[in-house]
Amino acid sequence: MTNNINTATSTSIKNRCMRLRSVPNGKIVKSDLELTEEPIPSIAADDENSGYHVIVKNTMASIDPTHRIWMNAKKDQYMDGVALGDIMRAITVGIITESRNIDWPVGTKVVGFGGICDYYVGIPEVTIVEKCACNTNNEISPTLELSYGGFVIGLTAWHGVNKILQPGSSGGGGDSNNEVVVISGGAGAVGSIAGQLSKTKGVTVIGIAGGKEKCLFMTETLGYDYAIDYKSDEYTISDKLKEYAPDGITGYFDNVGGTVTEAVLANARNYMKMAICGSISEYDDEWQGIKNFNMILMRRISIQGFVCTDHLDELSDARKDLYQLKKEGRLIFREDIREGIENYTEVVNLLFTGGNKGKLLLKINEQ
Amino acid sequence: MTNNINTATSTSIKNRCMRLRSVPNGKIVKSDLELTEEPIPSIAADDENSGYHVIVKNTMASIDPTHRIWMNAKKDQYMDGVALGDIMRAITVGIITESRNIDWPVGTKVVGFGGICDYYVGIPEVTIVEKCACNTNNEISPTLELSYGGFVIGLTAWHGVNKILQPGSSGGGGDSNNEVVVISGGAGAVGSIAGQLSKTKGVTVIGIAGGKEKCLFMTETLGYDYAIDYKSDEYTISDKLKEYAPDGITGYFDNVGGTVTEAVLANARNYMKMAICGSISEYDDEWQGIKNFNMILMRRISIQGFVCTDHLDELSDARKDLYQLKKEGRLIFREDIREGIENYTEVVNLLFTGGNKGKLLLKINEQ
């Protein structure tokens, strides 16, 4: 993806672009990125793509833990990282401002890999993933596709729970008695949906998150049975898991990895199923890994790592389920909207300090 | 399991028993075990079990890496460990020397959890698993059920390859092009069968083992495509894997864990399947674990830990396949028979230094 198209008509410098300048060393710092002002891209009539590509103005960006992974192109990852000098990748909602494409007219709100910038050249069905549902229904939030209705958040939670863990049916390798599902990052955007989906299957749900407020949110608002504060000095995660799941854990939805995952492995019931969609504790360059890896053998655990983009064919099924639950008031979802493209670094770091409360979004421009 | 039954008739002291005295601290040392002389167990006519239990004289014991796990009853494991003071657990072949059970007469050769001792009280279909095939066919080796025909060795390899990795069909998550299966412990008892079974499916097989001799054995005798010596100073495992599997590994049969597994994870193709039946590098009390655990997410890897005793219903299918391959000369299997119950400690340690050449067995008594 390149946002460097310059045409004869694009001379006005109004496109703010957050470009990656260096690979972060641990925490992301301001100097790892640079906010530049560049010409707004345009598509001239004589451009070979003039009837296909469109120009999109970003309104809202989804800020996700994977941004930290993307910032290190040299590291093994599930898709190409962002090269030094390129605009920081992000999934965004935006509005088409220039188009000769009759299927994608000016004014259409779209979801795509827009990046942290004001304007980008969108390629329908390539970098533009889909049209927003709010185009045809004013009652639908313009951020729906970045939150529980999106492939990054909603589909990830839905696939992990319904296709991998399958609580309440074959969850726990055929041992469906007193199933206990644990969600790490249980108050987060993906985790909070995964926990609530598991709850609808009638199993016990334990959420793990950092801080008293998030723990209260999990038990009082999301309806989890138990909450464990991984930052607490009063107990260990493993002791609490032993207390809440004395017969062992049957399903584990993992967003974080590291010591939290070690504690879950130490308390696994035989044949525990584990879905890994994130590993936020391991996104720095120093990897800690898992010390008790051999519990996978001892407890005959099955593990599936997965990435939402592999399962886009399930998106409509996932949405159907999630919209229905939301309509019935059985799905609570919070958004945490921050403002200003210039604040990108501070905002993305909230994910790693646990400072956000709900799905983190960055408002770049007005609707 | 107890071997402590004393009856009025068992006064002769001729039963040598290797009893666990302390949990090994790292390497197993002589003083962790004690060879005692005890009364030979017997079953008196008025014993309530006299028509059911039998007395078995052990002839050969299977020496397996799991012995080290069993020696630490306090550690999480897949079955109860051996308590301090108890006879060391081992699967053995033995011959029934006393019986009032018409289905299990004196002279029958049996496979069971006999332990490292001369005689034990066997409970048919509980501690005695089955009758040896050599009872009815003189051409069959009396050690068959401890080697490629047994549930610990043959079934483990067969289940891991045929039920989990499934090379040549859905192996590699649907990506069946140029499949590459890696076997750690590839010259060992289980690994050598797993590698040969994978070879029959037409995929590329890379074996990892320690030392030049084992590497030659894998390529020249077992028919592997490539061998990697994990003890070599001339290259790293990861560099060699990159060279032999430039498009990534699609299936991994893991016997060892630790740094070998890290190297395989670093070279996984998307959707790699991984079967874990052993973790021999982690059987000491200090666990090293896996640093690049997050490759499971990045490469969308699926992992299944498994233990042979969960899959005894597949034993006859596994044997059918393995016997046929052996008959056709397509399955090579080596045994390494050591002698003398008093040498148990030195013999079991061969597994951890890589000193054995083939399935390790300990002869306790003559047939």
UniProtKB/TrEMBL annotation, chains A, B:
Domain of life: Eukaryota
Keyword Repressor: no
GO MF term set: oxidoreductase activity, acting on the CH-CH group of donors, NAD or NADP as acceptor
Domain Alcohol dehydrogenase-like C-terminal: 189-310
A Pfam family that the UniProt record links to this protein: ADH_zinc_N
Signal peptide annotation: none
Domain named Oxidoreductase N-terminal: residues: 16-121
SUPFAM superfamilies, A to Z: GroES-like, NAD(P)-binding Rossmann-fold domains
Keywords annotated in UniProt: Oxidoreductase
Protein's name in the database: NAD(P)-binding protein
Source species: Fragilariopsis cylindrus CCMP1102
Organism phylogeny: Eukaryota, Sar, Stramenopiles, Ochrophyta, Bacillariophyta
